[in-house]
Amino acid sequence: MQFAYAHSTKDGAISTSAGSATKTIYLSNSMIYQIVIKPGTADTSYDITLTDVRSVDILKETERVGEMNELIQLPALGNLTMTISNASNDEVFTYYVVAQD
């Protein structure tokens, strides 16, 4: 399988403050194949939501603990908003999203 587009931030990280953070992931109409989210410490719990341009939650997981590494096939319409909330620690989360336009 060949991926036409792999997206991550320049530094590949967002920082939770008061337990939450939001990041826009710039995609066009795409198919997401992998999502990796890794908190700074392995025992951190958090909620993760991906919301599309129509304000539809296309992925929502609650009470996740430690690293999330999901191989999926998830259609995405336009830019996504990734929200990490209810984090048990204020820390840096790294993330990586693999998608094909």
Which terms would index this structure?
five-stranded antiparallel beta sheet; single chain; mainly beta; 101 residues; disordered N terminus; four-stranded antiparallel beta sheet; Jelly Rolls
Tally of domains: 1
Oligomeric organization of the protein chains: single chain
How many distinct helices? 0
Rg calculated over all Cα atoms: 13 Å
Query: At the first level of CATH, what is the class?
Result: Mainly Beta
Largest sheet data: 5 strands, antiparallel
User: Which regions have little confidence, pLDDT < 50, spanning 5+ residues?
Assistant: 1-5, 7-11
Short summary:
By secondary structure, the protein is mainly β. The chain is built from no helices and nine strands.
Give an overview in words.
The protein is mainly β. The protein has one domain (5-100): Jelly Rolls. It has no helices and nine strands. Residues 1-5 and 7-11 have low confidence and may be disordered.
